[in-house]
Amino acid sequence: MATIIKSYEPTFWDKLYIPALVQGLLVTFKHLLRKKVTIQYPEEKLIPPEGYRGLHRLNKDANGRIKCVACDMCSAACPADCIDIIPGSSPWDDGKERYPVSFEIDLLKCIFCGFCEMACPEEAIELTEIYDFSDYTREKLIIDKDGLLDVYDKTKDKNYYSNSQNLTIKE
Amino acid sequence: MTFLFYFVACLTIISALFVVLNRNPVYSAVMLVLCFFSIATLYLLLEAYFVAVLEIIIYAGAIMVLFLFVIMLLDLGREAALPKLKKLDKALSLFLVVIIFLGILTLTMWAGGDLHQTLNPSSVGDIKAVGKALFTDFLLPFEVASLLLLVALIGTVYLAKRRVK
Amino acid sequence: MDFLALLIICVKVLLVFAATMLTVLLMIYAERRISAFIQGRLGPNRVGPHGLLQPIADGIKFLMKEDIIPAGVDKPIYLLAPAMLLIPALMTFAVIPFGSDITLFGRNIPLQVADVNVGILYILALTSIGVYGLVLAGWASNSKYPLIGGLRSSAQLISYELTMGLAIVSIVLLSGSLRLNDIISQQQGHFLSWNVFKQPLAFLIFLIAVYAETNRLPFDLTEAEQELVGGYHTEYSSMKFAMFYMAEYANMITAAALTVTLFFGGWDLPFLNETSMGMLGVVLSVAAFILKTAFFLFLFIWVRWTFPRFRYDQLMNLGWKVMLPLALFNIFITAGYLALTI
Ligand code: SF4
Ligand code: SF4
Fold first, then answer.
1. CATH level 3 topology of A44-168
2. Gap from B33 CA to chain C (nearest CA, Å)
3. In degrees rounded to 5, what are phi and psi of residue C84?
């Protein structure tokens, strides 16, 4: 048998219910007039906070060369196993021996955990604030080295979304 | 007007026949509602608006809904699969129908050749007239009927309560 | 009946029908927008200016959808049920006067499709017929959720129809007539002659019953999404589903108009004598009627997005143990008062 504990005895005024109903209606009416929180997406875009984990980028060093040394640390750390690197010896001869010949991330597999950027000894891979990169085919959502470097150019100076040119609807 | 009358009268009879002849209880119920509607239309043609509307509110709107409710709860779908009536049963029911029909026919003939009412039905079916008749001439039957309903109500409550101990 | 009279009637029927359908569309739009506003959202605002064409887009979508008739349904009744719901819903508005009389071509034209002398009963009769649409839709779908929804609706509508009828009786007692025009003319004059102020209890009971009759929240147990998927229209798709929707909104419009007629003086503007003002009076009275009805339509939406749904036993308790005795009590008081004063 369940025991019923009465913690609150409604008064006669409460039992009329009508005042409470009117109170409820007033609450929703106040909400009706409040400022709306909707962001009109393609025209307005939410600027994500610092530290948001979106699309990846591959950083460049001061000379504009790719920072990544193809050590495979990110690929090993990746829980989704979505980073695919083909290493090669670098074409430059200033002490940097390896560089990625190809660097692909399958964005459909990626869970945006950010482990790759934590694992990277060179701070070469980073997650940016870009969140709207959907596309129509699976192939287009495998981003390659050039794509990742492109993202770096787009995001290195300031927040991608505060750049007004990105607010217009793109093809 | 006359054409309308014959049309609606035919509709009434056909729908009534469907009620009896159909083997699916839900269809019967729907047909009965249609029958009530045609009867209400007949009242309308007689300019007895109040009676017509009452016919719909009480019979079509309340009683038949409850009928349907019960039919659906009982799930009488298997009625359709029941064995057909035997020959003897058929003959018996046909005999009874004929007897009753003849009885009604003789009674109406007896009552007078003219089937048309002399009273203006719209004054008989007026809400004031109905109310007056109920509370003066027919007060006793009215009260008895209400008592009957009360008894039925108490019976239902008793039946429903008994199972829950 | 001459040709002109016939023409006038046809025009009135068309006008009322068009106005009802237009209001249905507007209501669907308003419902979505206001619910969004209450929840701090914007709602549909893309199709047309401020999203006003959204209902039309919805309609086109419904027309394009595949019309699914599930296997195992009872076809004739399944096909008939939406019409059985929609037709009474659209017919009801016929007796509601929406303005004072207009004089055109030397004729006195009442702004009302049909002046029936049992107007209120006509409305009650039609609302009680609407149940069949729900119940039969539920049964014919041959599926458990619609069936439960249909059964719930029939029980609910019968319970609340009674209360609604009793609330109306006290109004009828005051006006001494079942004709809606008489009820309106009896409320003319100043503010306090409106029935809300004479019969506040009846108004409250009527309002609650109306919400139950139109299956609106907090009484929308027939289509309680969380329990019954979609209630009686779960198995319907395409235009037939849209018909259920239109019927629901048409019912709401009639209910709001009826509330206005019975308790807020119909097209009456307080302190004005519309009938003696000619054309201006007609326009004012129609505007007053539309505004008042719009308020009650807004209230429908407002209430829906404020209160949670009742439990079924609570619904029945409220109907039979609270509202019915209160309505009876109210009739008793009204009748007693009338008997003493007249
Ligand atoms: S964010 Fe996580 S899942 Fe995505 S590539 Fe980096 S490590 Fe892999
Ligand atoms: S991105 Fe960093 S962790 Fe990954 S291969 Fe390049 S250097 Fe190594």
1. Alpha-Beta Plaits (3.30.70)
2. 9
3. -65, -25
